[in-house]
Write a structure and sequence with these properties.
Keywords: NADP. The protein has about 270 residues and is of the alpha/beta class. About 50% of the residues lie in helices and about 15% in strands. The longest helix has 18 residues.
């Protein structure tokens, strides 16, 4: 998203707990201003938000837990309201406005409501499955995407997909047109394919099946908790809108799974 905002002519202040980190230096090299902030430290947020027009918000519950996610999201909301932020774009998740029992979806409903309660102009983005789930080691693709996810969800169940770069481009477009997008809640998918279909495209693209490593569900949960397995079970029968029309209306060039795979070194 930072790259897309900079390309669009915005001045970007990127916030990090560690300005000396490799990731922070990469943002600096892109042309962003890098500043220290910690979402557990409201005073640091007040300093970091001062003078800013807009704010992109996202927390990672896999790293900090769901109670901390809600607390940190609330800290961000209060600092944004106190410093006069005029447009918040929230990188959230989920399938609707009702609770599902999936913690990583339900927590984001609480955070979004906190922004609304404080009167902040808010755009909520709900990307569906990231295409990077198929390749990025941080997402455990050999354990989850190609094995446990289809086992619990069903290999032929449709899945809405979006690549991370396209999410960044869409977020940047939200800031460019606040009158249109403030108040919007957008489910985002640029393609709908089952795991079976993705597996077939992968094999066609590479000449081999994607690597899989079966892992018992209980062992997987010992490493990453129960949120993902709860989510996949919900998706086995849960019904919600997976239309790609909204995404392609905002970003006509948003990639399909096949187009994305063609660009990967897999």
């Amino acid at each position: 998203m930072v790259k897309h905002l900079l390309k669009d002519g915005w001045q970007v202040r990127a916030l990090t707990r560690n300005p000396a980190s490799e990731a922070a230096q990469a943002l600096l090299n892109f042309g962003a201003e890098v500043q220290h902030a910690d979402t557990e430290d409201p005073a640091s947020l007040d300093r970091a938000f001062a003078g800013a027009y807009g704010l992109f918000n996202v927390q990672n519950p896999q790293a900090i837990g769901f109670d901390a996610e809600v607390r940190q999201g609330g800290n961000v909301a209060e600092a944004a309201a106190g410093t006069g932020i005029r447009h918040v774009v929230y990188g959230a998740a989920g399938v609707g406005d009702n609770r599902t029992g999936v913690d990583s979806w339900d927590s984001k409903l609480v955070i979004a409501q906190r922004f609304r309660d404080l009167g902040l102009p808010l755009t909520v983005l709900r990307p569906m499955a990231f295409m990077e789930l198929m390749t990025d080691k941080g997402y455990y693709p050999q354990f989850s995407t190609w094995h446990l996810m289809p086992k619990l969800m069903g290999p032929s169940r449709p899945v809405g997909w979006l690549c991370v770069d396209d999410l960044g481009a869409i977020a940047a477009r939200m800031f460019a047109d606040p009158v249109r997008w403030s108040g919007a809640v957008l489910g985002l998918a640029s393609d709908v394919q089952s795991i079976e279909q993705c597996r077939a495209m992968w094999q066609e693209r590479t000449g081999r099946k994607p690597r899989g490593l079966p892992m018992p569900e209980k062992l997987f949960e010992r490493f990453v908790g129960k949120d993902l397995t709860t989510m996949w079970r919900w998706l086995r029968t849960g019904q919600f809108d997976m239309s790609t029309q909204t995404t392609h209306g905002i970003l006509p060039e948003a990639l399909t799974v096949r187009q994305w795979l063609d660009r990967q070194s897999v």
